[in-house]
Amino acid sequence: MATRLVLYFTASDHLLYRWSRRGLDFEAKFTADDLGVDEFRRYLQGRVGALVYVVADLSGEDFHEDQIPYLRGADRQAVVERRIAQRYRDTRLAAALSLGYVKDERRNERLLLASFTNTQQFVPWLEALAEAGAKLSGVYSVPVLAPALAARLGTRGRNCLVVTVNRAGLRQCYVEDGRLRFARLERTVEMDPEALAAFARAETLRIVQYLATLRAVPREGPSIQVVVVAPDEQRAIFERTLASDSRLAFRVLGMKEAARKVRLGSLVPGAGAEQLFLHLSARAAPKEQFARREERRTFILWKLQRAIVGAGAFVFAACVAYAGFEWYNVYDTRGKIEAQQRDAQDATQQYQRITATFPVPQASTELLKAAVAEFNGIAARTAPPETALAYVSHALDQFPRIELDSLTWAIERPDARAAKPAAVPAEKPAVVGELAQVLEISGRVVGIQRSDYRSVTGEVQRFADTLAADRAWHLVRKQLPFDVTPDGVLSGDIGEAAESSEAPRFTIVVARNLK
Asked: Pick from 480, 377, 353: which is nearest to 425 by CA?
């Protein structure tokens, strides 16, 4: 894991800390002159690839509120850079913090332009980092980190003031809706705790009055929440001095309590509340910072490399998991195969034990197999007559004028019956040469005068069509009461038949193939 270093940048001196999840460890202290830069260069030798976070706590800061049109992407970036260039002569260390959007006819975005009055004091230190091959995560300021600290300290309401006693002095940051609105640093000399607490109260009242002139806070309204982080040994004095009133609602926290809220494991002896900001810069750095993209190029490439390695590790882990799953399936399948083989061997042995008790047959195995096959064929060609009789009965229910004289059921080849003379050819002949159930239906038509040839013929024809409606049955032969020519003309001794009182007779043969 890459070494993480946090450089605390003040006007008098610069302190370097090594960050870990346990907390901060003091590494070195450098003066703010060229000698300090040389010592910093020597310290960075042999620490190629270290991640460096620069946190500035300076009084020379500039904050300016501006508005730009509602834009996105490259257009917004171009407008922001133009506004920064118009505001500051040196744009190397400048940032634009979003303050939200103005809800009016034109939806504009509010920006807080921030920079340092003297950016040249950072140049030699940043150049030393670039020469040493260190990865610059960003240049942050204590005010930029103040919203993250306010959120972790559990501030209530929309607006609050965060007051901390740092090494550089008394830091006051006004946070509005979770965004930095204004900040101020007041240098402090050696003061006793009572004087420092009184000074903190006086400076808080001054900054509130200044914010009221800027119309950042209402002149008349609810009390403003003020969170003060003081040394643990001075907490009681601060609580006694910073009494809440109608304008300010003070809440004093000790360093240990504040460190617990930001998950800072251990405190650096002799350090102030700045270590809370230093810890947040390395643990949860905000997107807003002052360094240009060119100066953070190695850090951005490092993050991209880590993302690629992480994605590769995830894919590799997924492949390993899938391979393990497939290996488990193979192992399980092999177990099932072995179990099936054991079952097959047991079944074979049991079969051999059973067949060993059988009497010795007089015929060969092939002959027995042929006999069994023939028996199965005979069984397949055998059919009971109940289905055929039910089939005829269902058709007769629809024709009450038809009376049966005889009903013959047999299993035979229907092609012989189809060849008899004086028969009307079947519309759906049975398959020639196959055994089938054959029904020969002989009957007569009653209730219709014999001389009404067409009615008698139509009744028989409809009965035959009803029988042929079942797809399983085939009409083999149809013998009508009268002779019919191929053109549909009645022929024969019709006159003599008309004088007879006997009902017209017919014969229909249907068949159903055996499957």
From this structure: 480
